[in-house]
Amino acid sequence: DVTKSLKPGQELVAIVHDELVALMGPEDSKIFLVEPGPTIIMMCGLQGSGKTTTCGKLAAYFKKAGRSVLVAAADLQRPAAVEQLQQVVEGVEANAKGSAKIGFYGEPDKCAEYGKAVNAAVGVCRRAVEKARAERFDVVILDTAGRLHVNDDLMKELESVRMTVQPHQIMLVVDAMTGQDAVRSAKAFHDRLKVDGVIITKLDSDTRGGAALTVKKVTGAPIKFIGTGEKFDALDEFSAKRMAGRILGMGDVLALVEKAREEVSDEEAERMAEKLSKGQLTMDDFLSQMKSLRRMGPMKQLLGLLPGVGSALKDVN
Are 286 and 293 contacting, i.e. CB atoms less than 8 angstroms apart? Predict the structure, then answer.
């Protein structure tokens, strides 16, 4: 009876949705930690893909899970990259949820040696791992250098880091807005490094994440996380069903619910609902709700998670 009530267009959307889910799956957002630690995670990607910010988000993710993290700045080429990562880590340490500690390791003086000393970045990574072992960190995240395009020098440096520190996970950070360039760079990185997982960033923009399709197909590596904003907590575990819904303009209600539950507890929601039903809602209550809504992110982004609303907001500034 349900099938007969559907129009051919609706049937087609359902079929495409199921095929997209199959293409992007299976889902595997877990990062397995080794015992004894630390678990070494090497981040790689092109310059401008959001790699440094993602390192901070990943540190916040582990802190929330009760794992201590050491973030190491191994990007010695880009100006002020070490200082930028340090500021990101300090911000996460001060504001992220959880009691586990987040540390930073960097050698700004090594930036002057870059290009002269071939293994400068490799040495930074090695000493960072040694520090993590000595101070019993659970996880160490290595923020490696990126380039504006894939070249042999970049790959040789990353291969040297991989051979020296033997990372347990190699994460490729991909900008969702770069389209086919993301696919070509993903293939180049995977051919040389054998990527274990992909993190897609900048999905808070107008792009719907079509790059997720081909990146998964080209690398064969599971998409672990998606970046949905600039804040340190804007990192979501990847879901093929929810991504398929975004690509087809069907919204992502589950993501909206999760954002709301992070800001408002069940007890608070019930209390507010009871006051509203009795007509006792005050301006202070209304202001509290507006503040919670603001913490969830930009209004345009929140409305874009509703079915059918995202496409209507494309032309709204």
Answer: no
| End-to-end C-alpha distance for the chain, whole angstroms | 43
Parallel, antiparallel, or unpaired for β 169-175 and 235-237?
Answer: unpaired
3-class DSSP state of 305: coil
Q: Looking at this protein, which amino acid is placed at residue 242? A: R
Residues 6+ apart with CB under 8 A from 61: 225, 235
Q: What is the pTM of this model?
A: 0.73
The answer to whether 29 touches 130, Cβ cutoff 8 Å, is no
Give tens-digit pLDDT for 239-260: 777 777 767 766 555 566 666 6
- Integer Cα distance of 120 and 203 in angstroms: 34
DSSP assignment letter at 79: T
Query: Other C-beta atoms within 10 Å of 317: how many?
Result: 4
Backbone angles phi, psi at 232, to 5 degrees: -65, -20
Q: Round to whole Å and give the CA distance between 133 and 97.
A: 24
* Residue 72 and residue 124 in contact, taking contact as beta carbons nearer than 8 Å: yes
- The crossing angle, in degrees rounded to 10, of helices 180-193 and 152-165 is 40
